[in-house]
Amino acid sequence: MDLIPNLTTVIFEIANFLILAYLLSRFLFKPTLKNIRARAEEKARLLAQAHADQEEAAALRATWQSKLAGATEQAAVLMTEAQKEAEGEHTAIIHAAEEEAERILVEAYADAAQVHRQAAEKFQDELLTVVLDISGAVIYRLSPEGLHDTMVKQLSQRIWEMGRNEMERVETFRNSLGDRVPTAHVTTARPLTPELQGTLARTFAALADRNVDLDVKVDPDLAGGVRVRLGDIVVDNSVAGQLTELRAGVAESLQEQLSHE
Question: Is the separation of the CB atoms in 174 and 209 below 8 Å?
């Protein structure tokens, strides 16, 4: 009879178990489950945040990679443009340097040609002077006196021709003399004979339409012939005068030849 559980005891045990289960559920299992759910939610939240951060990081990375690619492309474009500009400036500098070098060469050539031309002109002038001086001296020594006398008579004839052909000029000359007695300044290569002096005196008297004084000087540099100055009229029929004319013609010819070189 003792081995059979008492109904009261069984009920009491069941009541104790239910009370214990309730207490455990109330104060132990529910807080624990709540904590577990809270931790799971936090973990899920953290996982979601981490995933979101990862996606944001990936987006930022893609953005920066795109920007980097754009920057790289832009840098390449800028480098290409800079290289082209540098090449253009380099070409322009070379072209300018070539033009400047060409200009300097042209100026140097022109200066050298000018110096050469001046030296040639000076040499030719000096050479002509020497040749004509020697020619005059040779003519003076070798020419016969008859040549000198002939040139004096030729001068007299030229003055007579002036009186016949240039009357206006002769009248102007006569009027310029006024009432004074003019003097004919005669320069001769050799001394004049009395006959030649008389010829010249008559010729100049006819030209001036009055008596004329003669002032005669001997200058061997004339080489032959005579030169006369009467007022503003100068008549030259000397070897030196002819050589001077020859020199002018030769100098002009040589100048033309130099200008064509």
Answer: yes
What is the 3 state secondary structure string of 44-82?
HHHHHHHHHHHHHHHHHHHHHHHHHHHHHHHHHHHHHHH
Residue 2 reports pLDDT greater than 60: no
Q: Does 136 lie in the same domain as 152?
A: no
Q: Which position has the higher pLDDT, 198 or 27?
A: 198
Same domain assignment for residues 110 and 237? no
Listed residue (98, 121, 200) closest to 157, CA to CA? 200
Q: Determine contact, residues 254/179, Cβ cutoff 8 Å.
A: no
Cα-based angle 192, 195, 199 (whole degrees, multiple of 5): 95
Whether pLDDT at 142 is above 60:
yes
Is the same domain home to 138 and 155? no
Whether 231 shows a pLDDT value over 50: the answer reads yes
| Stated length of the chain | 261
pTM of the model: 0.50
Tell me the residue type at 177.
Answer: L
- Considering the domain architecture, whether residues 198 and 113 belong to the same structural domain is answered as no
Residue range(s) defining the domain that contains residue 150 = 145-259
Query: For residue range 152-198, what is the model confidence (pLDDT) as tens digits?
Result: 999 999 999 988 899 998 998 888 888 889 999 999 999 999 999 99
Q: How many helices (H) and strands (E) does the chain have?
A: 6, 4
What's the Cα-to-Cα distance from 89 to each of 65, 82, 86, 92, 97, rounded to whole Å?
Answer: 35, 10, 5, 5, 12
